[in-house]
Amino acid sequence: MNVPAAPAVICTVDVVLLTLHEGALQVALVQRERAPFAGVLALPGGYIHAQEDADAQAAAARVLRDKAGLHSPYLEQLATFSGPARDPRGWSLAVAYCALVPHGLLAAAPMLVLAPVARLPQLPFDHRAMVDAAVARVRSKSQYSSMPVHLCTEPFTLPQLQAVYEAVLGEPLNKVSFRRKMDELELLEPLPGALQTGGAHRPAQLYRVRAAYRRSLALSTRGL
Predict the structure, then answer these.
(1) Residues 126, 128, 132, CA angle at the centre, nearest 5°?
(2) Is the same domain home to 84 and 157?
(3) Are 102 and 19 in contact (CB under 8 A)?
(4) I need a surface site. Which of 33, 51, 115, 163 has the fewest CB within 10 A?
């Protein structure tokens, strides 16, 4: 008895690329070139290349390189979205990732269109759900971790970093508590003799992320 072949499952990756611009979280979108939804703004995404990609995370990193010309030091698996109704082409599975980059890096990616996460345009597939999940993840982890630092361009002052945290969380933070938290994380190191001057305030110390933290992040984002 001949058993009919099962229909192929569409398997893709999609990347919610977040940045901070004009004091608000924004997501990077690209215009789709092909059907379905040709010409519509959507998250950067694409098929997993079984012969090229070592895993889904490698596919997501490739999508960022190919469609945005970017390498994100922070790329975290977010969730899997699947089912027969999310893609008009058939039953599909998409592994969504969250990436964070400083806004300055996007100058080299003119194909990207930024949209505030609070005022998203109509998005195809279930990309709106992916953005909502990424924003919730980032805001939750920012309450106790160093995640917002990936939205900063080095070097930066502590007040600048605090402003980034406040923009992500959507609420003001106590200055003393914030600085204590940064000390506990052992995340930053001062740049010797480097001060930001100008304005009405006294010069402020400039900081960068410790090299050991960068190395640890590189390993963790590769799943090692």
Answers:
(1) 120
(2) no
(3) yes
(4) 51
